[in-house]
Amino acid sequence: MKILDRIRSWWPFGTVPETGAEELRELARSGRVQIVDVRTRMEFRRSRIPGARHLAITRFTRTGIQSLDLDAARPVVAVCLTAHRSVPAVRILRRQGYDARQLRAGMRAWWHAGLPCETGGP
């Protein structure tokens, strides 16, 4: 991959596949999706989608992603606060062969919809 293409993949702008908050809730309930929260540890501890795994975007390397032990056969939804940090996460996951998308409008959309959250943890 060219260096310019690698740099562009980290830009927090552009179009990536998305899913809405209500749809994500249903997918998560049925176990048909994996959720990766790419916000900071503090943000993750403060409020997160139940069952979400955490890997801050600053640690989004091949090794970091492998540590999540994701199932390559199930879709992955990346989540951040406003759907900016999740853009590069989706690009990286897709490059590694995952069916990845982001939560449209991020955690703000989840909270706005009044959907359940967890707090505390690691």
TrEMBL record:
InterPro entries: GlpE_sulfurtransferase (IPR050229), Rhodanese-like_dom (IPR001763), Rhodanese-like_dom_sf (IPR036873). Keywords: Transferase. The keyword Transferase applies. SUPFAM superfamilies: Rhodanese/Cell cycle control phosphatase (SSF52821). Gene3D superfamilies: Rhodanese-like domain. Pfam families: Rhodanese. Residues 29-119 form the Rhodanese domain. CDD domains: RHOD (cd00158). Signal peptide: none annotated. One of its GO terms (molecular function) is transferase activity. This is Sulfurtransferase.
